[in-house]
Automatic annotation (TrEMBL):
Belongs to the acyl-CoA dehydrogenase family. Residues 131-224 form the Acyl-CoA oxidase/dehydrogenase middle domain. Residues 236-385 form the Acyl-CoA dehydrogenase/oxidase C-terminal domain. This is Acyl-CoA dehydrogenase. It comes from Mesorhizobium escarrei. Keywords: FAD, Flavoprotein, Oxidoreductase. Its cofactor is FAD. The gene is mmgC. The keyword Membrane does not apply. Pfam families: Acyl-CoA_dh_1 (PF00441), Acyl-CoA_dh_M (PF02770), Acyl-CoA_dh_N (PF02771). InterPro entries: Acyl-CoA_DH_CS, Acyl-CoA_Oxase/DH_mid-dom, Acyl-CoA_Oxase/DH_mid-dom_sf, AcylCo_DH-like_C, AcylCo_DH/oxidase_C, AcylCoA_DH/ox_N, AcylCoA_DH/ox_N_sf, AcylCoA_DH/oxidase_NM_dom_sf. One of its GO terms (molecular function) is oxidoreductase activity. The keyword Plastid does not apply. Its EC number is 1.3.99.-.
Length: 388
């Protein structure tokens, strides 16, 4: 365990189990992810095999109940895992987060039959899962989504397009928010759609700034037939289900920023201790020492804040959603800034792929945009403060 992470976690007096979980995730990431992360990024390779290796470690259903193969851990445990995986590769860790978000939605809102059917294969990572909310015409304003699901006998027939779906084309299962009723959030329902559903297809892999190891594609529904038993909970419950998934997802993505930024700071500390300019190691310049001091301070503040927000969700505190939004906004902003400062401390070498810093900056940038943009986090926080 890195000294900086250790110091941060000690504020929360993690118990033995939590330390063991953290160390297990960190060891796996160091062994199976870190040596490959730059290659996966360069070659835009989706490492389904290595992702599946996390199933037997209990990472396919971190906070899913144990009767369906889940690990039944808490949100703070999950944050520790995503932070540890992200020390090696935030893009890898983020995909595992999305998969877990889907599994937990089925666990929480699915019938017993649905849970028994889908979850053992998700928790073992035999099946990988994606989350489909965003559409070409609705991102932040997710309740304006237009994908429609119409009941037809024993099926629902889906028509519409989902945009920016992580893992699309590679995942085996898609949780899809679609409109079954009137405009607005109350007309939305949630469906579990298998990859081989008739009428389901995928767009081209988007060329994007970061997160290169996972695909981002449109998911297209053209008279796509889904058995009625794949409706999750009741018609009209879908927006609440989607938002419930995001509360935990936001903490996870913040943890991915934290781990990535910690890795960037560690690299900057090593580099500035070696690199010489004007006859001295560059970490002897007080301007750079102050920069490192600020990076450490801000990262530790972010860590403590994130753990506090995760503890709120674990305790089902009434203000847990506000804290999830605050943590997502704060930690992903700090994480990006720390990674960007680490790049600057590397000079021109920070801009080269082989040093692994520019990848972290590219990967962490999108965390300020997805799972609700950081502006939308401010909307949620302000609503909680002053009402609508
Ligand atoms: C790489 C990547 C992966 C993604 N993966 C997924 C996925 O797996 N599943 C999924 O469903 N989605 C996914 N997304 C979509 C992501 O969640 C959306 O891009 C995001 O929610 C923003 O929506 P938008 O892009 O339509 O931007 P818009 O909603 O059009 O926003 C544009 C700008 O306006 C601002 N804005 C909008 N409304 C307000 C307001 N009320 N007040 C202040 N500012 C506002 C936004 O913050 C933003 O700066 C992914 C996106 C990317 C880039």
């Amino acid at each position: 365990m890195d000294a900086a992470v250790d110091a941060g976690t000690s504020q929360f007096e993690l118990n033995e189990d939590q330390r063991a979980i953290q160390q297990m995730a960190e060891a796996f990431a160091a062994d199976r992810v870190a040596p490959n992360a730059l290659d996966w990024d360069r070659n835009k390779h989706f490492p389904a095999d290595v992702i599946r290796e996390t199933g037997p470690l209990g990472l396919g259903g971190i906070y899913v109940s144990d009767d369906v193969g889940g690990s039944a851990l808490g949100r703070l445990d999950a944050v520790l895992i995503f932070e540890a995986l992200s020390l090696a590769d935030p893009a890898f860790s983020s995909f595992i987060s999305i998969h877990n978000m889907v599994a937990s939605m089925i666990d929480r809102f699915g019938s017993d039959e649905q849970r028994q059917h889908f979850l053992p294969k998700l928790t073992s990572m035999e099946w990988l899962a994606s989350y489909c909310l965003t559409e070409p015409g609705s991102g932040s304003d997710a309740a304006a989504l237009k994908t429609r699901a119409v009941r037809s006998g024993g099926d629902y027939v889906l028509n519409g397009v989902k945009q920016f779906i992580s893992g699309a084309g590679d995942s085996d299962l898609y949780i899809v928010m679609a409109r079954t009723g009137a405009d607005g959030p109350k007309g939305i329902s949630t469906f579990v759609v298998p990859k081989d559903a008739p009428g389901l297809s995928f767009g081209a892999n988007e060329h994007k700034m970061g997160w290169h190891m996972q695909s981002t594609r449109q998911v297209v529904f053209e008279d796509c037939k889904v058995p009625a038993q794949n409706l999750l909970a009741d018609e009209g419950a879908g927006f609440g289900i989607a938002m419930a998934g995001l509360d935990g997802g936001r903490l996870n993505i913040a943890a991915c920023s934290l781990g990535g930024a910690q890795s960037a700071l560690d690299k900057a500390l090593s580099y500035t201790a070696e690199r010489k300019a004007f006859g001295a190691k560059i970490n002897q310049f007080q301007a750079l020492q102050f920069k490192l001091a600020d990076m450490e301070t801000e990262l530790q503040a972010a860590r403590i804040f994130l753990y506090a927000a995760a503890s709120k969700l674990d305790r089902k505190a009434p203000d847990a959603s506000k804290w999830s939004a605050m943590a997502k906004r704060f930690v992903t902003d700090i994480g990006f800034n720390v990674a960007n400062d680490a790049l600057q401390l590397h000079g021109g070498y920070g801009y080269l792929h082989d040093y692994g810093i520019e990848k972290l900056v590219r990967d962490l940038r999108v965390h300020q945009i997805l799972e609700g943009t950081n502006e939308i986090m401010r909307v949620i926080i302000a609503r909680a403060l002053i009402g609508r």
